[in-house]
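Late entry, evening session. Most of the bench is empty. Finally got around to the prediction I had been postponing all week. Sequence below, unchanged from the version circulated by S.P.
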Amino acid sequence: MKKFLKAKIIDPILNLLKQGVTPEKIALSIAFGILLGVFPVIGSTVILCTIATFLFKLNFIAIQLANYLIYPVQFILFIPFIRLGETVLGSDPFPLSMELIFNMLKEDILLAIKTFWVANLHGIFGWFLIGPISIYICYRILLPILRKVPLHKLQGNEINE
């Protein structure tokens, strides 16, 4: 696990810092990747991260790295986002479970989309509610960590040393 974390998370971020990408840019890119990576529309996050990269001049590698790593959490937060949207909008709870969603998607994707579209809109609304504060919190947590990386030690040295 330690080897995976170093190879897939730490080294790419250190490489970005070595190349001169600022800690601020990396922190903001990762924060956006985390938020967009849990967007409650399955299969849309890569496109959303790519669009955000161009709109906000973010770092593509950092945002996609965060998106890739947060992917499992998208499924965990899918129903809570729907419930948040339903609660805020005063809608009756839609009867659903992850098992029901996966079974319907496996059997007939178009029927699943037709069945869950209103619930999904509630999920998107719930996601929008937490979006700005989530980016801010992630950014404020990541920035001091990235600023502590000793860049002078990285310059001209291999990361593996």
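Two things to note before I forget:
The longest helix spans residues 109-147.
Helices lie at 2-18, 23-37, 45-56, 60-89, 98-107, 109-147, 151-154.
Will write this up properly tomorrow.
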